[in-house]
Design brief:
The complex is a heterodimer of chains A (333) and B (248). Chain A has 13 helices and 2 strands; from the N terminus they run αααααβααααβαααα. Chain A has 333 residues and is mostly helical. Chain A has a single domain, classed as ABC transporter involved in vitamin B12 uptake, BtuC (Orthogonal Bundle). Chain B starts with a strand and ends in a 9-residue tail after the last helix. In chain B, α3 packs across α4 (119-131), α3 packs parallel to α5 (147-159) and α4 (119-131) crosses α5 (147-159). Chain B has helices spanning 40-48, 70-76, 93-103, 119-131, 147-159, 177-190, 203-209, 227-232, 234-239, and strands spanning 2-11, 14-24, 29-33, 55-60, 63-64, 78-81, 165-169, 195-199, 212-217, 220-225. The chains are: A mainly alpha (333), B alpha/beta (248).
Chain lengths: 333, 248
């Protein structure tokens, strides 16, 4: 298993992500740090969605709602910290804790209702909830309504971390991405993870052998929401700006596209997908304003010819490499 | 062990279970036979809770289970196999059975430890695989097993929930001669250790294994008796066995 081309490529990807700020600084293009920072944040969102969509078969079409929750926690918190001088409301640790709590509560409510349905109904209910949150944000005049809020300051990590430095923020994002990947790895291979995979594979049989599937799905749904809520906190700090569009349904769609592009139900698929998505957006939008015209057919080809996404192609590459190296060994002897 | 009282289930105008009452004693194999559409699978699905009866009660092991959800009935000791193979195709054979073991070893809110390296799940699962003769196929994707092996896996998954009673829905459906023989051996090995409700089309198998047979026609139990008596029952012969199957 060790040192196959796929593992080498994924390792290289992760190492490169770790080195981006150094490279960007050395070529004096800080823009790349910001671009890749966004990739890291959306990777975390995609990793969290992949927990329920990829491993649990729950196609939530409202996952960006948690990006919105995390973002607004920072937006509203820093607003009051700045305008009213309520200092603790600017504290980053509190932002993260509150984002976790609110995301968990939202996940619990959305999940408790939507997980009683299946298929297209589940997709529609999760979408409806996300739209509800979206319009609540649009209607909240105090915090900018449709226009949103510009952040006067970033989350304050009490001298531990200075987020006004883009590189510090980058490495905070990177650390959260690594943590979410490790968590995802542990979760999906644990008993809990096996129960979740089982409900994706065959829910009827899961019940028949004695699993109360609803409560496992609900807990998975809440965990995914929490992780994405944290990504929302990071996202607000990244853009210095919060508005309802972070939780627009097209954002939820983007997260799904990233997972499909990278590889559904694999550990690194969502990261590969998020990086590929934003890189393509960056490259193609440099060529034409209508970059989706090129991106759409590309996605179509991936879905038709490479079901496993980019990670699936790497797995195929591994298989080819294995056959080749066995053959070479035989010839050498 | 299992007591069914005046069970009724209709789909639209069609009566699938028509005021059916019967009792299965502990340790016996009670077979249900009847032509296609007699309501045999519907009966099993009502006992396991996948289908809700219109009226009537089901008692299992002294408890009324008529209104409780599927997973709790499994926890009380009821396990079923499916007529149409119903497994986790994208997992290994071993994973399939380990998941069954996991279902009945407490809650699954364990988030950290690798379940595939958990000997509490893996070792018993392997024992059940050996019991049905699938141990050499443990690491193969369940979807890639042969039809006969799927049937064996069905039994292993049911056994792995450590049931008191097995509900087997045509365990030999679509099997070749050799595979059928192996399955009969497996079932004979289970006789007396477990209470079994068996649905099976193959009359040879039914008469060989069953202690008691109920003949089901259009959801109605027209006779329940020992195999020999069923064979000689004129009403049964007229209704069902008259098609020449009885000569076997």
């Amino acid at each position: 298993m060790r040192n196959t081309p796929r593992i080498k490529i994924i390792t290289l990807l992760m190492l490169s992500l770790g080195a981006i700020p150094l490279i960007a600084d050395s070529i004096d293009e800080p823009f790349y740090t910001v671009l890749f920072s966004r990739m890291l944040i959306l990777s975390i969102g995609a990793v969290s969605l992949n927990l329920i969509l990829g491993f649990g078969g729950m196609v939530s079409f409202g996952h960006a709602v948690y990006l919105g929750i995390g973002s607004y926690v920072v937006g509203i918190g820093t607003f009051h910290a700045f305008e009213d001088g309520v200092e603790w409301m600017g504290n980053g640790f509190i932002h993260i804790l509150v984002a976790i709590a609110v995301s968990a509560l939202a996940g619990l409510i959305i999940g408790a209702i939507s997980l009683r349905t299946h298929g297209v109904y589940f997709i529609m209910i999760t979408l409806a909830f996300a739209q509800m949150f979206y319009f609540i944000a649009v209607g909240t005049e105090k915090y900018g309504g449709d226009d949103g809020l510009s952040l006067y300051m970033r989350s304050d990590f009490a001298g531990l971390l200075d987020l006004s430095n883009d590189n510090s923020l980058y490495y905070l994002n990177f650390a959260f991405l690594l943590a979410s990947l490790y968590l995802s790895h542990r979760l999906t291979n644990s008993r809990f993870g096996m129960a979740i995979r089982g409900t994706k594979s065959n829910e009827e049989r899961m019940k028949s052998i004695g699993f109360p599937v609803f409560r496992y799905r609900l807990v998975a749904f809440v965990i995914a929401g929490i992780i994405c809520g944290i990504a929302g906190v990071l996202s607000a700090n990244q853009t210095d700006f919060v508005n309802p569009s972070v939780m627009h349904w097209t954002r939820s769609g983007d997260l799904i596209i990233m997972i499909v592009l990278g590889g559904i139900g694999t550990l690194f698929g969502p990261v590969i997908g998020a990086v590929a998505f934003l890189l393509l957006e960056e490259l193609l939008s440099g060529i034409t304003e209508y970059w989706q015209l090129i991106f759409g057919p590309m996605l179509l080809l991936i879905v038709i010819f490479a079901r496993g996404g980019i990670d699936g192609m790497l797995v195929a590459l591994d298989r080819w490499w294995l056959r080749y190296s066995v053959k070479k060994n035989v010839e050498d002897n | 062990m299992l007591k069914v009282n005046s069970l009724v289930k209709s789909f639209g105008g069609l009566l699938a279970t028509d005021n059916l009452s019967f009792e299965v004693e502990e340790g016996e194999i009670h077979a249900f036979i009847g032509p296609n559409g007699a309501g045999k699978t519907t009966l099993i699905s009502q006992i396991t809770g996948e289908i809700k009866p219109d009226s009537g009660t089901i008692e299992f092991d002294g408890k009324d289970i008529s209104r409780i959800p599927v997973h709790l009935r499994s926890a009380y000791g009821l396990a079923r196999s499916f007529q149409i193979t119903n497994i986790f195709h994208d997992m290994s054979t071993w994973d399939n059975v380990a998941l069954s073991v996991q279902a009945q070893s407490g809650h699954s809110f364990h988030f950290w430890k690798d379940a595939r390296k958990d000997s509490i799940l893996r070792e018993p699962a392997l024992v059940f695989l050996e019991q049905v003769g699938l141990e050499e196929r443990a690491d193969i994707l369940a979807g890639q097993l042969s039809h006969g092996e799927h049937r064996q896996l069905e039994i292993a998954m049911a056994l792995a929930t450590r049931p008191k009673m097995l509900l087997l829905d045509e365990p030999m459906a679509g099997m070749g001669l050799e595979e059928s023989k192996a399955m009969i051996e497996i079932l004979q090995g289970l006789k007396r250790k477990l209470t079994i409700l068996l649905i099976e089309h193959d009359m040879d198998v039914v008469f060989k294994l069953a202690d008691k047979i109920t003949v089901l026609v259009y959801g109605r139990g027209i006779a329940t008796d020992a195999p020999e008596a069923i064979r000689n029952n004129p009403e049964v012969q007229a209704a069902y066995l008259g098609e020449g199957v009885v000569s076997a």
